[in-house]
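Backbone-to-sequence.
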C-alpha cells in the first residue's frame, strides 16, 4: 500500500498477534497518510514568515498589551456587555486553570486563587475585543551539568514540547474566544547565567535556536523578548552573538540600577512571599546538582562549603528574579503572568511545560525527555534515563535529542524512516531521502539524494498499525 490516502483501521490491518479490545475501537482509529506528491506544510492562521516574522519577533513596545497588534485585525469592534464578558472570562480562566498545577486554594468556598486574581484582567481584554496577552519569563539556558542532567547546551525535545504546550494553550483559548491569546516569552538567561558559571555566548546560542524552533513549527501565537529590549538599551528584532555579548553586562547593571530595592533583605522577603519561597526551595534543590561541575564552586573545599555556596547562589537568583519580575510587571501590566514554577495563583499562574503524573514536572533546561512506546513523555535527569536499560538515546542530526523506550515497533525493515514524537501522543513517521555518494571522473566525489517510492512491507505495516493503536494519531509522510 502506497502512502497516498487516509486509511481506517480494520481488523485485517492489525497484526495477527494483537490482543486488544473488540472491533469497536477500530472505528475511532485512523492512520493519516499525506498525499503523493508530498504537499507543503499546512500554514497556521496568521503565521508570519521570512522578513515579516523577523520584524515582529522581539519589539519592545509592540508587545505591550495596548499596542494595536494585540487587537484582532479581522474581528469587527463590538460592544460586549460586562455580564457576557465575565462569563467568557470565567471560561478562559477555566482553560488556564486546567494547564496549571496549583498548590494552594483560597478560603473555604473560594477555590483556586488565580481565578479571583486574574479574571478581571481577562474580562478587560474581552470587553475590548482584544487578544488576551500572557507573559512567561522562562527558557534561560541549559543547565551547565551536562554529565548528569541534560544532553547538551542547545534546546532539544524538551523545549519543543514546552513550546507546543504554550501554543496549545493559545489554541484552546481561541476555540472559545475567537480573538485568541498570545504568549510572550521573556528569556531570562541573563538574569542568572553569570551566577551559575555559564557564558553569555552560550545563552545567545540557546535562545537563537529556540526562536528557530518556534518559527519552524509555525507558532504564530508565541513571541520572544530579551532583557536588553525590555530595558530599551537595544531596539532591534534580531541581534548578533557579538552585539549580544557586548550588551550583557550593561543589561544586568541597568536591571539592578533601575529595579533593585535599596536595603532588600532576601531572607525576610522569603518569609513573607510563599510563591518566591517555593521558587527558592526549587533553586536550592536543583542547584546542588547544577553546580557540581560549575566554575563557581570549584574552590569549595568540602561539602559544607559547597552547600553554603549553593544557598548563596540560590538567594542571589531570587534577588535578580525579583528585579526582573518588576521589569516584566511594568512592561506587561495587563498580561496574565505565567510561571514554570509551582504557584498559588495569587500573583502568578503556574504552567508546567511537560506535565507529569502526580508531580509538577521538571523544566526542559534541567532535564531530559524519555518517550515511551505509546508516546507519553517522562522527564528525568540524564543520568537516570541513561542508567535505565529500557531506554536508548536518539539523535536528531548530530545532536543527542531524547531517550526512547526500546521496542521493535521503532525498528523497521524500511531503513530510511525517522520518528518524530509530538505533543499529546502524536507520532509522525517520516520517510527521508537516501544519501548516495557518486564518483565524478574517478577522483572527485559528490553527494546526491534519492527519493525511494517503495511500498511498506507487511512487517512494517503491522508495526504501523500497532503504533496507531498506542498513539492518539500516527501520520506517515512520504519523501516525495
Amino acid at each position: 500500500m502506497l502512502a497516498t490516502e487516509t486509511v481506517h483501521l480494520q481488523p485485517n490491518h492489525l497484526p495477527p498477534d494483537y490482543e486488544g479490545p473488540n472491533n469497536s475501537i477500530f472505528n475511532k482509529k485512523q492512520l493519516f497518510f499525506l498525499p503523493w506528491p508530498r504537499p507543503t506544510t499546512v500554514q497556521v492562521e496568521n503565521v508570519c514568515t521570512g522578513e515579516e516574522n523577523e520584524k515582529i519577533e522581539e519589539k519592545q513596545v509592540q508587545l505591550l498589551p495596548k499596542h494595536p497588534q494585540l487587537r484582532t485585525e479581522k474581528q469587527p469592534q463590538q460592544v460586549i456587555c460586562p455580564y457576557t464578558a465575565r462569563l467568557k472570562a470565567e471560561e478562559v480562566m477555566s482553560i488556564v486553570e486546567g494547564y496549571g498545577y496549583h498548590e494552594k486554594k483560597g478560603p473555604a468556598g473560594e477555590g483556586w486563587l488565580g481565578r479571583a486574581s486574574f479574571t478581571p484582567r481577562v474580562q478587560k481584554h474581552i470587553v475590548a475585543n482584544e487578544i488576551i496577552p500572557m507573559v512567561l519569563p522562562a527558557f534561560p539556558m541549559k543547565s551547565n551539568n551536562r554529565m548528569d542532567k541534560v544532553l547538551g547546551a542547545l534546546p532539544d525535545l524538551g523545549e519543543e514540547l514546552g513550546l507546543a504546550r504554550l501554543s496549545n494553550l493559545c489554541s484552546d483559548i481561541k476555540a472559545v474566544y475567537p480573538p485568541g491569546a498570545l504568549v510572550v516569552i521573556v528569556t531570562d538567561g541573563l538574569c542568572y547565567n553569570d551566577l551559575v558559571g555559564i557564558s553569555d555566548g552560550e545563552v545567545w546560542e540557546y535562545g537563537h535556536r529556540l526562536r528557530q524552533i518556534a518559527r519552524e513549527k509555525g507558532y504564530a501565537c508565541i513571541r520572544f523578548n530579551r532583557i536588553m529590549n525590555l530595558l530599551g538599551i537595544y531596539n532591534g528584532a534580531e541581534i548578533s552573538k557579538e552585539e549580544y555579548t557586548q550588551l550583557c553586562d550593561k543589561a544586568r547593571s541597568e536591571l539592578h540600577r533601575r529595579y533593585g530595592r535599596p536595603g532588600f533583605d532576601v531572607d525576610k522577603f522569603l518569609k513573607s512571599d510563599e510563591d518566591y519561597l517555593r521558587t527558592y526551595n526549587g533553586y536550592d534543590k536543583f542547584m546542588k546538582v547544577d553546580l557540581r561541575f560549575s566554575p563557581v564552586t570549584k574552590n569549595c573545599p568540602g561539602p559544607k562549603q559547597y552547600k553554603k555556596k549553593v544557598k548563596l547562589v540560590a538567594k542571589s537568583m531570587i534577588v535578580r528574579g525579583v528585579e526582573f519580575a518588576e521589569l516584566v510587571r511594568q512592561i506587561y501590566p495587563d498580561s496574565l503572568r505565567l510561571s514554570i514554577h509551582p504557584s498559588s495563583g495569587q500573583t502568578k499562574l503556574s504552567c508546567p511545560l511537560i506535565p507529569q503524573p502526580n508531580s509538577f514536572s521538571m523544566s526542559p533546561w534541567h532535564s531530559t525527555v524519555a518517550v515511551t512506546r505509546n508516546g507519553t513523555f517522562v522527564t528525568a535527569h540524564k543520568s537516570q534515563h541513561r542508567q535505565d536499560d529500557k531506554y536508548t538515546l536518539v539523535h536528531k542530526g548530530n545532536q543527542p535529542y531524547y531517550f526512547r523506550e526500546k521496542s521493535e515497533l521503532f525498528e523497521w525493515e524500511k531503513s530510511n524512516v525517522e520518528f518524530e514524537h509530538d505533543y499529546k501522543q502524536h507520532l509522525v513517521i517520516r520517510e527521508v531521502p537516501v544519501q548516495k555518494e557518486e564518483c565524478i571522473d574517478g577522483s572527485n566525489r559528490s553527494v546526491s539524494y534519492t527519493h525511494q517510492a517503495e511500498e511498506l512491507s507487511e512487517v512494517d505495516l503491522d508495526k504501523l498499525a500497532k503504533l496507531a493503536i498506542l498513539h492518539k494519531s500516527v501520520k506517515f509522510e512520504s519523501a516525495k
